[in-house]
């Protein structure tokens, strides 16, 4: 059961009000509970407290319809907002499995949500690049639509049987690979001042980080993979950490890139989809290492979205490049939207409308 605090209250007083041991409150919530808890905080509590919290001036019940409306919102996500929504999702939809696949440089969790229990294993990720944070917003909207259909027992969505998709497919969903970078773009300099001087120096002493693409150490996470990495290293213009494009001093030095590499090695995905911005293109080939079925899948993506399928581009050391090269399985980089990064949030509706077919085709193909 979800409750929302009507006013700020100490943990001790809340425990007394709920007639619930504070340790049980801790165990029922992934957030750290200590000292005073702020008003409007939402908590998950055991259902046996239902009669206590009704008609209370301290807490109120939050119904399923309220949580659903809060989840299915078109909004920018920083790492904190994402974490709050994930907690609501796993309460609303117990069939979603949440785990942490790694941590960022600043120690922020990189979450994976797993939906389905089928033999076909599909991985999707977003926000590899900090200024492409809108990918997380679009992905979370897709996800909510999908799990809501599953939870409501719907049979079809976007023309396909969602229950069959759930039975046939296991979806690995990592909506924010680069939480430090996204937070830097959306919120500015981190409270941890360890990196403040270096960030300002890399950013020409500007506190406007809206164009920042890299992780917090100035490494481009999508230039970190061990497939012709030396080619990218040699030709990239930044030779030291920078807001964008610097591939690092060696492959897989950054914890965020390592986390995704380890995830692939552990879970043996049948295909991967990495969502970026911008250009309305789908990159799907790499040095002719892609399998034959990769083309049939990308043609379906192309048909549903109107995006252009591009087989060959002069680029190396990316997550998708590495996956296709090393595993000989289909991998796709999907460039959502058009314009200049970061794309304005008022593009959300158009991006969502064009790209949601790719999400579902990524599952049923």
UniProtKB/TrEMBL annotation:
Cofactor: Zn(2+)
Catalytic machinery residues: 335
Top enzyme class: hydrolase
SMART domains the record matches: Zn_pept
Source organism phylogeny: Bacteria, Bacillati, Bacillota, Bacilli, Bacillales
Family under the similarity heading: Belongs to the peptidase M14 family.
Keyword Zinc appears in the UniProt entry: yes
InterPro entries linked: ENP1_M14_CPD (IPR034274), Peptidase_M14 (IPR000834)
Keywords associated with the record: Carboxypeptidase, Hydrolase, Metalloprotease, Protease, Zinc
Protein name: M14 family metallocarboxypeptidase
EC number in record: 3.4.17.-
Entries under Pfam families matching the protein: Peptidase_M14
Keyword NAD applies: no
